[in-house]
Amino acid sequence: MIHGELSAPPELAPGALRIFALGGLGEIGRNMTVFEFGGRLLIVDCGVLFPEETQPGIDLILPDFGPIRDRLDDVEAIVLTHGHEDHIGAVPYLLRLRQDIPLLGSRLTLAFLEAKLKEHRIKARSLDVVAGQVERLGPFSVEFLAVNHSIPDAMAVAITTAAGVVLHTGDFKMDQVPLDGRITDLNGFARLGDAGVDILLVDSTNAEVPGFVPSERDIIPVLDAVFLRAEGRIILASFASHVHRIQQVIEMAGLHGRKVAFVGRSMVRNMGIARDLGYLKVPGGTIVTVEELNGMPDDESVLICTGSQGEPMAVLSRIANRDHAISVGPKDTIVLASSLIPGNENSVYRVINGLAKLGANVVHKGNALVHVSGHASAGELRYVYNIVKPRHVIPVHGEWRHLRANAEIAHSVGIDLDRIILADDGVVVDLVDGRASIVGYVPVGLVYVDGASVGGVTDAALKDRRMLGEEGFISIVAAVDMIESKVVAGPEIHARGLGLDEQAFDEVVGRVRVILEESLADGVTDTYELQQRVRRAVGKWVSTSHRRKPMIVPVIVEA
Amino acid sequence: MIHGELSAPPELAPGALRIFALGGLGEIGRNMTVFEFGGRLLIVDCGVLFPEETQPGIDLILPDFGPIRDRLDDVEAIVLTHGHEDHIGAVPYLLRLRQDIPLLGSRLTLAFLEAKLKEHRIKARSLDVVAGQVERLGPFSVEFLAVNHSIPDAMAVAITTAAGVVLHTGDFKMDQVPLDGRITDLNGFARLGDAGVDILLVDSTNAEVPGFVPSERDIIPVLDAVFLRAEGRIILASFASHVHRIQQVIEMAGLHGRKVAFVGRSMVRNMGIARDLGYLKVPGGTIVTVEELNGMPDDESVLICTGSQGEPMAVLSRIANRDHAISVGPKDTIVLASSLIPGNENSVYRVINGLAKLGANVVHKGNALVHVSGHASAGELRYVYNIVKPRHVIPVHGEWRHLRANAEIAHSVGIDLDRIILADDGVVVDLVDGRASIVGYVPVGLVYVDGASVGGVTDAALKDRRMLGEEGFISIVAAVDMIESKVVAGPEIHARGLGLDEQAFDEVVGRVRVILEESLADGVTDTYELQQRVRRAVGKWVSTSHRRKPMIVPVIVEA
């Protein structure tokens, strides 16, 4: 287990395989792993990361394409393990750089991706594959293996080159009785393991969680009890890609004589796709429009919507804030059939509190088994290690604490510590003569998408935002005549976010005027120097008088 | 269970008791309940609330003293149930309005409060009381009852007036084998219950959690295992007021031949107080200074510090960021022996990831039983309801979801729904002729402390901060000569937090100049109107060209 300050990697030895991640190690999201062999590159997944509160105003965070930007012509293909945003969301941004990179993935994965590419007006070359299929992509032979996850049609990939075999699990768990009967292909894992797997890249998300993830089916009796007790309307929020969860709700609605409507753009779109492709099975007449649902008795209706993470603009938040056509009251039941992504607690509880205050009965994972995770827990990971018997392990998909916990699981089933590689984004691992080791580092950072800008917003801009957001700003404006050495307009003070009365500034306006006049009289003619003097005076005043540290923006213009 | 838009309460009937909260209902923190009888007021607790991410830059949130501001002379006393910030933190701010209000509480509670009052340079009148004691405070007779909580010396209060008996649990749980042997006084609760309790105010914090809180002692074997396995230094973070938790760590250190040092201002101060008063028992020679500890072998030392909530300036965060004299490596063990307060997840996990990356073994409530809650779970609450047999219940201390869950527990043990009162802050409940009901509402809001300002920062200022924090601002400055109808200086553009190049603004600067010149030529002489025109133009440009919505601050000064 190594990590530290590393230098640029050496040239890749002939016949060796190189692996590095441009995102997804040490964080949850923006998964993207690059494989290099014989001068060619293969990319597995290309996802986005969602910002947290220290990254205000940011829409998305992309993997850093920097290390491969000059080598896009060497890319054989992008292989997508499944259709979640953190695995496919950055594909449009990569295709903007080279549109004809072939995309490989299962039908549902590619269908969700197509919808996204359409929004970006990108027409891609894509090839849908099924579990069991093997594709030759330049020097890479890629076998796709079925895995079970919180979205249908997920796959692991085994990548074979002359250097050896790498098995990448993607996101997975091992529900032994999944709704679609498609279980994680342990037989395939075993076959590969018996033949010899040089490196196993393993999902770490739930490595800290002991035991086994319950089956998706274990939710059925809980939903049944909720439906049985519900007197009024049922509103259920979930992830817009969780086809099996929605399938269960639709079936439960049928059993209890309720009709179902979808609300929310992504929910409507994804369920349409899943239904068209046969992943979502809907008995005739079960699904109605929201308008039709509104004409029905409350106790015959179910609304399925987005907003389970407390997103302020989503339907559920707006209902909780009484800012939506749908109103809820004491007879209604709200179900948040979803995980609670760390960092979203305050938003989610704000929604739950709002709904509870309106009298609704709120069922969520904190008080009922209405969600099971999509990622293998520690118990499942042990099975995988024992079946695959990998020569090396690289824990992937997780924050550092998850990677570390996964490393400990690998070690607990007998894998030597020096064969477990904990790597950060950009850390380069080479497989040479059957031995994998860290050989260097390629610089990768966070690439922010904000409005139309990709990569333009830097950490310095975010630091400014955090300062402005915590303290507000004071702007001091004056126009000076350098020749006459006098202030011809202002000083005026404009402050936002401070919560101070206008009169509070009277004192300091006078002080600034004196400073400007004295400085001009002393022969200062540099506006930058004048601005610095004003900045210091105002900063000192607001810190002493009000114990604040706003951003101070002096603007001295020459008339 | 009622709640809604209410009008001002009627005059209080003679012989009736009035209860309303100025904070602490529908939120966790700033607990403060006012009791009124015969024209006199009694206050139970006066705490602060800590801000969340939608309240950037705010230091503290106080209860709204507005409804009693004109009646401070009627206040008989402030009764404090225990020494946590959310119960005592706002006392200095109330005493600023009337310094001689008597304070009653246990010794430890008052000692923690004194330290705080000293910082505010306030000298208070205080009376320490012990469990079992009864104090006459004007028309109120107040009995103090021992309760068990995550701080020693916590108490419930029974308030008797001619109108009836109210039992207020404060924060409590029911550890049956607490470290100090001081169990929640169920015998007292039973005696009061048998005599008749008109209203029970009950801690709701853990009402959503089924079962019973494990004993503080259940942590011992876990700590023992941690100490046994630890090869290097042990660093343990906890709340600075959790005397019993720290007691256990000190004893464990003794058993394993390690010395203990405290780091962090509040930890050092509180443990000093607790030790002086005999609440913390320290075998001779166990405690050393940090300097002494640094001279000892790692495997003979334990550092106890603050920062268990991921506070960025606390010792633990700084160690994780390698920004502290204490460095950790692969042999060291870090223990977060604390809860994870909702909203702090990202900060806490950031610290855990940082420490894990340095190679340290991080033990926290997510992977070991190193914390037990201080609040009664659903199982314990049922005991209390059945023992007290209250005529009415008002769930307190919790977000709305907790109050509601507590109401359901009360109902499940046979209390009629119309005797369970769910009230928001400011909702007024009168107890008249043995019957309690909601009679009106007194307006209460959130009072923000920011630097030297108490109540000056409004929600409008916070809205500005949020906008600035997400989008930054563009300031456009120009000086105009109204007589000559010309622009004499500028326009200049200053932007912060946008992450746009300076050249990006060239185009719009020209456009603003044209707008100003044309407007002046058209005879516009109102700077406000000029500013509006500039604002619209710049807003439209940045939205169209960059898909951003920063704050736009046009400043046109007259030269």
From TrEMBL, chains A, B:
Any GO BP: RNA processing
Domain Metallo-beta-lactamase: 29-223
Keyword Acetylation: no
SUPFAM superfamilies: Metallo-hydrolase/oxidoreductase
InterPro entries per the UniProt record, alphabetical: Metallo-B-lactamas, RibonucZ/Hydroxyglut_hydro, RMMBL, RNase_J, RNase_J_2, RNase_J_b_CASP, RNase_J_bac, RNase_J_C
One Pfam short name: RNase_J_b_CASP
Molecular function as annotated in GO: 5'-3' RNA exonuclease activity; RNA binding; RNA endonuclease activity; zinc ion binding
Entry coiled-coil feature ranges: none
Keywords from the named record: Cytoplasm, Endonuclease, Exonuclease, Hydrolase, Metal-binding, Nuclease, RNA-binding, Zinc
Official protein name in the record: Unannotated protein
